[in-house]
Structure formats: C-alpha cells, structure tokens
Sequence to fold (597 residues):
Amino acid sequence: MGAVQIKEVRPAVTRGGGPWRRLFSQEGPTAVVLLLPSLIVVFGIIIYPLLKTLYTSFFAVDSAFPGHYPFVGLGNYAHVLRTGEFWDAVGHTAYFTVLTTFLEVFFGLLIGLLLNTDLKGRWLFRSIVILPWALPTIVNGAMWRWIFNADYGALNALLTQLHIIPHYRAWLGDPWTALNMVAVADIWKNTPLAAFFILAALQTIPGDLCEAARVDGAGRLRSFFSITLPLLMPTIVIILVLRTMEAFKVFDIIYVMTGGGPANGTETVAYYTYVEAFSNQLFGEGAALAYIIAIFILFFAIIYMRMLQRGEVEY
Amino acid sequence: MRDSLGYRVFIHTAAVVVAVAVLAPFAWLLISSIAAPADLLSRPLHWIPAHPSFSRYENVLFNPRNGSAATFRAGMRNSAIVAASSVAISLGVGIFGAYAFARLRFRFRRVILLLFLSTYMLPPIALVISLYLTMARLHLLDTRLGLILVYCSFITPFVLWIMSGYFQSIPRELEDAARIDGCTRIGALFRVILPLARSGILATALFGFLLAWDEFLYALIFTSSLNSKTIPVAIAEFTGRHTVNFGMQATGGILASLPPLAIAFVFQRYLVGGLASGAVKG
Fold:
C-alpha cells in the first residue's frame, strides 16, 4: 500500500521533463505579468522627468515657462565645474559625508554591540534607541536648531551652567562650527539605523562561536577583534555605502537648520542645486548639477553592488 | 559562561548613558512645548517650567481661528492620506514584483532588479525640476493625488527590495506542495506565501509609511496650499516664519512626530528585522 502511494506522487515531484516540467519552466511570461505593475508605477513616473532633466541640462533654460532656449551643449556642465561656489559645496558635502558616515558607523558599532548584550530591560532599551531614527528629518532639524540657538538654546544653557563655556555662543553663527553642528544633528538621528544593522548581523553569528573562543581562553576583546569584527565587515561596508549615498544627497536638514548659511558655509551640492534651479531659476544649470550628483552617487552604487556580491559570509 | 559583575555594571552604565543621550533632546522638545514663553527665554535657563500648560496643544488641535494651527491640522491630514495611499498602492503592485524576483527565473532578472534599486540612488533633485513642469501641465500641482503618485515611485522599489528578501526566506517546498495539490502559482502566492509573509508585509508597510511621512523635497516644491501641504512642509514654514515662537515649533514638532515615533516604538522588532534582512540579502 505504502509503495503504491509513493509511486503515485512521484511523477509530480521529479522534474525530469514531461508536462509538469514544461509548466513549471514557463516563468518568463508570468514574471512579465507580475512585474508590469511595478515597472509602470516606478518608471512610468520617473523615466520621463529623468530624460527631460538630461535634455534640459543641454539648454540655457532660465525660467519655468516653456519656450525656446538656446542649445549650449555641455556648456552648463562646464560652467558649473568652473564655479567656485560649486566646489565649495562639494567640499562641504565631502566633509559632511565623511564625518557623519564614519561617526555613525563607529557609534553604531558600539551601540549595536550593546543592544546585543543581555541587558535588563533590553526590549525597552532597543525601543528607546530606535526613536531618533523615526523622528521626521524636518522636526529633527528644527529641534537641534532650537537647542543650538545663540540666545536661548539649551546647549548654551547647559554648558554655561556647567561652567564649560563662559558665555553663550552662536553655534550656527560661523560657517565651520555650523557645518559641524548640522553633522551632530545628523549623527544623532542616523546612528540608530547603523546600530540596528549591526545588531541584525550579530544575531546571525552563532553564539557558540564566541563561546568556544572564550572557553579556549580568548578574552572578550580578543574574541571581538578576531571573530566578531571580521564577520561584521560585510554589514559595516553596506552601512558605509548606504550612508555615504544618503549623506551625499543631504538637503532637508540643511534647509531647516541653516538654509545653507552662514556665508554659504553649510551649502551642500543638493542644496546648491536647489538654490540654482528654484531661487535663481537657472533650470538648465540646475539640471546639469543634478546629473553631476547622480553620477557621483552612481559611482558609490557600483561599489555597493560589488560589495554585496562579495559580501556572502559562510561559517 | 557567566559574566563578571564588573562587566554587567559596565554594560548597564553604558546603556543608561546611551538612553540619556537619546532621550534628552526629546525631553527638551517636550518641555519646550509645555513651558511658558518667559521660561523658555530666561537666562539662566529654567529647565523645569514653573507653570506647565498644554494650552498650545489645545490651540494647535482645536483652535479654528489660528492660521498656523489650521495649517498644522491640514498638514497632518494630508500627510496621513498621502502616506497611507501611496503605501497601499506600492504594496499592491510591489508584492507581485517581489514574488517574481524571489521565485521566478526569467531573462534580465538581475538587470531589472538593479534598475529598480538604482532608482533609490537617484537624487530626488534630479527629478524634481522636470516633474514640476510635467505636473503643472497635468494640473497635478498642489494636489494630494500628485504627491501620492510621486511617492509610489520611491516606495515601490523599497517594497520590491524588502519583500523579495522575505519571500526568499520562505521554504520553496511549501509552495511546491500547494501547487502539486492543484493550486496555480498565483493561488499559492495568496494562500500559502502571503499568509506566511504577514510580518514582512507589516514591516514593509510601516517602513513605507515612515518614508512617506518624512519626505520633504517633493512636498516642498509641489504643494502650495492647505489642499496638499504635508506636515514637514508646514513645520519648515512655521519654523522659518515664526523664528522665536519656540513653544509652538516644539508643539508642532511633537504632534508631527507622534505617529512615526509610536510606530517605531511598538514595532521596533519587525522594522529592524525587515530592513536588515532586505539590505543584507540584496
């Protein structure tokens, strides 16, 4: 009886040709049907603006009204690349990107390790740590602007009451300090994301691996550096690249905290593009700038994909 | 292996330090929203307000005559409608695409996947100029529908990314068994796969909601009136216009943050698990 049952099931399970095999392998048309809605929703919306922006970047468009604008070829690109303000913005963006990405990964690693220990009230601790990440970027910017306020800010109050600084300071008043203060606000908000990525990676590392090392006499630090850290590397790289791309696009927090000032000292490339296109109505130049940013980010994206492909860790 | 007392003291101290660093700015935001203006502008600063009052909340939520309050309320409503609709549409279309990426073999699978992922890398500023001109022609400027459509274009790739990771983690055998019993592929997707991926769908929906709620640049450029202005735009505007009314800035900020903060606090496990699995698996 048992043998008969097995025989009956068999033709369906084996995949060696026959009608079943053909049915299963015709996946192309099914895939097209399943993917079509997504393709329409995404590329139906972005493909035209994307091409149109590229087209615009070759013309000296200087108003939002349709009309005939002179063709300038790569003129907009050349002009942008010769502008001092653009390179200043690149400098601010690069500094901001490196500083925030590095510190977010560093603190994210430490906090991620802490999230993974068996703390009392661990559930509560995790729920608290994630909060800055959920705070809307605009609210985060407004909140830190208020904390850094030159006349009434909480940071000034705290530091003078602790006698760390003698007088109130304008934290957003000079370009260099302002850029660093914006970075502080960004780091405070985005470190939790890095920490939780690290936590997720730590949870996939078998506990007995570190246990075994410790039984063999390795100290906590030693087992971290020779076992845990190498296994975390793929995740760290992913965070690095994701955060780099995000930081390179930074706009919202600059808009609400400093408006690019003082003296354009916190103007990033995305913000500069916004000002050129929407305040100065130089849409052609704005479009060229947008493509320059996209090329930069594409460069990071390629690195990201490479890392992901190599990132499979086995143990 | 037992942990030493010193180690346990160390990690608990570190956790308290981190929790304070996280909560202190929130606490100050909350205090600012209930403190009297005189307390906020005092030097040296009074940290604990003498006469806390929730009158600003009352004002923002119920006062019909205050223009800023009306903008906040409209902003919250618009944000909720835009975020919920764009998430619903994105999930509706994205789940099928994610399934195709997770389970089917077809030509250009990898190329199409990369195309979707690369949209995430596009700076919105590259699209916003032309989108503005197009939307003006289609009379979609300053409408919620216009925003919903644009938001779908960046939430859908996210759905594809995270959900295909979830689908891959569901054993293929379950689906094969259903299909041998006579289910079609779509039937198996609805009866077997989707019920198993419930937590993934929840995480993706919440995540999409947070993304939409947080979006600023498109909303800033495309909206101009109470018809469609979202809450980040309302807050940025208020902060820019009433630079010294810190109490109202804080109140608006807290109200705008409550939905995403509540989501993150309650669903922390789902969100983090979903995000991490999607990102690591690609």
Summary: Chain A has one domain: 77-310. The radius of gyration of chain A is 27 Å. Residues 77-310 of chain A form a domain with the MetI-like fold fold (CATH 1.10.3720.10). The first helix of chain A runs from residue 2 to 13.
